[in-house]
UniProtKB/TrEMBL annotation:
Keyword set includes Membrane: yes
Keywords for this protein: Membrane, Transmembrane, Transmembrane helix
TM stretches of this protein: 7-28, 40-61, 73-96
Protein name: Uncharacterized protein
Source superkingdom: Bacteria
Length: 97
């Protein structure tokens, strides 16, 4: 099985920054109180941050079994964060339409 940890770390760190930009822009425009966007983006931030952490641990792990476990956790956290971002995009789309 090919190691995905470095790809997860790269994508998670980039999308973590994107999620933080979403939260910051919602706070600046004072839209956060009228939607659930900031909650979804906040959950996505946490999931992306922990995904970065676990993928880093998977890369640095000496034991293959432990590394695979950390990589699987990072993968599921990344998927959960992507789901939150998709929900946020759906909410924005529904507000625009």
């Amino acid at each position: 099985m090919e190691k995905k940890s470095s790809h997860i770390l790269n994508a998670s760190s980039n999308l973590l920054g994107f999620s933080l930009v979403i939260i910051t822009s919602l706070k600046i425009t004072k839209i956060s109180h009228s939607t659930h966007l900031d909650e979804f983006a906040g959950v996505a931030c946490l999931c992306f941050a922990f995904s970065c952490f676990f993928s880093f641990l998977a890369i640095r792990s000496k034991k293959e079994k432990t590394g695979n476990k950390f990589e699987t956790i990072a993968d599921y956290l990344f998927l959960s964060a992507l789901f939150c971002i998709v929900l946020a995009v759906i909410i924005v789309t529904m507000r625009i339409i």
